[in-house]
Specification:
Layout (H helix, E strand, L loop, with lengths): L4 H4 L9 E4 L9 H14 L6 H6 L5 H10 L6 H18 L7 H10 L4 E4 L4 H10 L7 E3 L12 H9 L10 E5 L2 H10 L2 E5 L14 E3 L7 H13 L1
Parallel strand pairs: 1-2, 1-4, 2-3, 4-5, 5-6
Helix pairs in contact: 2-5, 4-5, 5-7
Organism: Gardnerella vaginalis
GO molecular function, one term: hydrolase activity
Pfam families: Hydrolase (PF00702)
Length: 237
């Protein structure tokens, strides 16, 4: 969605309250790790899986991906597949966290401006905590992960829970930016009421018909002020 953020800036004084971040494909370019894990596990256990299917289920829960792999012949249980995938990705991310370009700079600028960031992911705690621990000190005020007991994306529950961590009511979620890259994530964030941006730079998915307010392509030149202008533009509509 194209918007005139410069013009909109002059219409109101609303402030950016928080930024909610998806993890895979928005903070880190980890989808290749997940896809490699899925393809390898399927191949080793009698299943059929490929890159196209991996992208199709990108952003879904481990349970959804595992059930799809089983339906295509992978001879393992749902929990076994999920654990094997997490083990594979965790090992890769311990060696190197694949931060996307310019995102660490933006996280630091948000922290310096006193704008809290919350990581909101379907991934399990061990993966989420590893990313939080490798981020700049103080970059994240908290996180919501896939094993916290909430319904996973595309439910709005993870984002509403993130808001509650900061004392932000459902009515005020519009003053928060949520950055996502998958349909499941975009639906989750938009349903929570957050001003939702689709990050299109690191995914092969076409989300042009998603429920996001606007698209961004990378983080070059993105600042807290840039994000705040999306809030202002939305409120001005």
């Amino acid at each position: 969605m194209a918007i005139n953020t410069t013009a909109a800036q002059n219409t109101t004084n609303h402030k950016l309250s928080a930024v909610f971040w998806d993890m895979d494909g928005t903070l880190i370019d980890s989808e290749p790790y997940w896809h490699d894990a899925e393809i390898q596990i399927a191949k080793e256990h009698g299943g059929e899986w490929n890159e196209e299917l991996a992208w199709q289920y990108s952003g879904g829960s481990l349970k959804d991906v595992a059930e799809a792999m089983i339906a295509r012949g992978t001879k393992m249980g749902v929990e076994e597949i999920g654990n094997a995938m997490v083990d594979y990705v965790a090992q890769k991310e311990q060696i190197e966290v694949p931060w996307v370009p310019d995102v660490l700079n933006l996280l630091q600028k948000l922290a310096d401006a006193g704008i809290p960031s919350i990581l909101v992911s379907n991934s399990p705690r061990r993966l989420v905590e590893n990313i939080v621990n490798h981020a700049p000190k103080g970059a994240f005020a908290g996180y919501i992960c896939g094993d916290d007991g909430y319904a996973t994306k595309p439910s709005s529950e993870p984002y509403l829970a993130a808001g509650k961590l900061l004392g932000i009511s459902a009515q005020n979620m519009k003053y928060c930016i949520a950055i996502e890259d998958s349909f499941a994530g975009l639906k989750s964030a938009a349903a929570s009421g957050a001003t939702t941006l689709a990050q299109t730079a690191y995914s092969n998915l076409d989300v042009s018909n998603g429920p996001q307010f606007a698209d961004i392509h990378g983080y070059e030149d993105v600042t807290p002020q840039t994000l705040e202008r999306y809030i202002i533009a939305r409120i001005a509509q």
